[in-house]
Amino acid sequence: MLRSSLTRLLAQAWPELEIVAQARNGREAVEQYQTHQPDVCFLDVHMPGMTGVEAARQIGRGAHLVFVTAYSEYAVQAFAQGALDYLVKPVDPARLVDTVMRVRERLLTAQQAPDIEGLLDKLEARLQKKAVPEPLRWIKAIVGQSLRMIAVEEIDYLRSDEKYTLIAWRGEDGKVSEALIRTSLRELLDQLDGADFIQVHRSVVVNINMVSHVTRGENETATVYMKGRPEKLPVSRSYLHHFKQM
Asked: What are phi and psi of 154, to 5 degrees?
């Protein structure tokens, strides 16, 4: 929702701007940056797996960075020197126009992106004082007549089923099980640890720790095989970069 809103506001404030990619988390942001080498990156401070600050460190001075944050009190102090721009959620259209003007001025005058290490250190220190939401640890599901608490670490994969999500997991006895919950895959994905769970298809998310092997298919697709399970899960072209070493 934030990405869609920001895209719409940017189209109004900066019609000539070409948005080359969008990312769901910090790790994807870095991958998309390396692929497209954009001049400007808008980074949310809090993202699953890799934060916006960590992503910014990897992007470095390669692009002009604009942080999007819900915490104005430390953003104002962290960026007081003006080396970086920031936007407070929900993004104010007038504030975005100011940011766009500053970024465009830098681009037009061919100014190099500033050295941001010092400011990132300040921001990271403030972030560590904030309560960052813990990744999801348990998922509640009705199995038969019982309410089951499924440990996230036991999940093999999740598959979207319209407004529902199929949870495939194995218990302590190693028995494979499935349950359908009334929560969308998108909602769950935002709460899962991005270091363990990756999206491989618009309707499939896998626990990378439970993957047995991956085989390449035709037209830049692939198939994921899970440990101890017969299912073959599709990898679409958009997510093949997770297995680019193949």
From this structure: -90, -5
Query: What is the SS3 assignment for 174?
Result: coil
Sole residue written with tokens 């099980």: 177
Contact 164, 182 (CB under 8 A): yes
Residue 26 sits at φ, ψ, to 5 deg, of -65, -40
SS3 197: strand
DSSP per-residue string spanning 85-119: EEEESSPPHHHHHHHHHHHHHHHHTTPPPP--HHH
| 12-53 pLDDT, tens digit each | 999 999 999 999 888 899 999 999 999 999 988 888 778 888
What CA–CA distance (Å, rounded) separates 91 from 7?
11
Structural domains in the chain plus CATH codes: 2-129 (3.40.50.2300), 138-243 (2.40.50.1020)
Amino acid occupying residue 163: K
ω into residue 135 within 30 of 0, thus cis?
A: no
* Listed residue (182, 183, 152, 184) closest to 168, CA to CA: 152
Sign of CA dihedral 141, 144, 146, 151: negative
The pTM for the full model equals 0.48
DSSP letters of 122-147?
A: HHHHHHHHS-PPPPP-EEEEEETTEE
Which DSSP helix (H) or strand (E) runs through 54?
helix 52-59
Query: For residues 119 and 75, what is the distance between their CA atoms, to the nearest angstrom?
Result: 10
Report yes or no: 220 and 237 within 8 Å, Cβ to Cβ: yes
Question: 113-163 pLDDT, tens per residue?
Answer: 555 566 666 666 666 655 556 788 899 998 888 888 999 999 999 999 878
